[in-house]
Task: structure prediction
Amino acid sequence: MALTEPDPTTVPTPQRPDRGSSVRGPAALVAVAAVVLGGVLAWFVLLTPLGQRLDERAMNTVVAGRETQLQVLSVLGYVSIGAIGLVSIVCVALALSRGRAALAIGALTIIAGANVTTQVLKRLLLERADLVDGVVASNSFPSGHTTVIASGVGALCLVSPRWMRPLVVPVGAFAVALTGASTVVAGWHRPSDVVGAVLVTTAWTAAVSVLLGSDHERVPGTWLLALVGSIGAIVALVAIGVRPSYGWDGFTDAALVLGALGVALGLGVAAANRVTPTS
Result:
């Protein structure tokens, strides 16, 4: 039987490796969702009696003794202009080492935009209505301390290559949750202030990612890693002495508040990671 030459038109051509999907669509959805959720949350906790009562009660569900309080305050003491300056330098250096000057600019935009937005919202645009007796009317929404850390984590997610994400995400979630929950334990902020700060940062991270475009290749397990990091921070606070304010009678309320806070902050970091490019 005679052999025939293969038809070159039928030979399969090699496929280009999958580089993932564009971040623009998911990032745009996350940015809009963060803005909408932040607006609804602000309205509920600042302008409705029920929201004010629930928020105040949530802040008062946990307490810390003197030694624990000092440890919590020492954690918050690391949140400073110097700290965010150092994170900014690291982000720029990491982006430039990858030859991605646009990512460096994007990281600085996230940090500056989120922190300026938080201060403008808290000091100029938002007011807590005087609706409930015993609730301090001065506004503290969103939390500045939490914004500083969360914006740094969002910027790090933006500039980190794919192989670094399994480290950046859980460590970042741990730092955000530890800072945010510590402000609640210290009585500086209500839980809504902390969640609001993460929503501000997530919105900025997603918006910058929309402008940058590029591709995101999924890193398996990062959502779980984010939750492990944030819940780990809550466990660490309990380990150093944070307790329910009303003993065993308040155990359920305290567990719900701290658990919900850990989950919300972990999901915020996971969302920031999901919408930032890896290529």
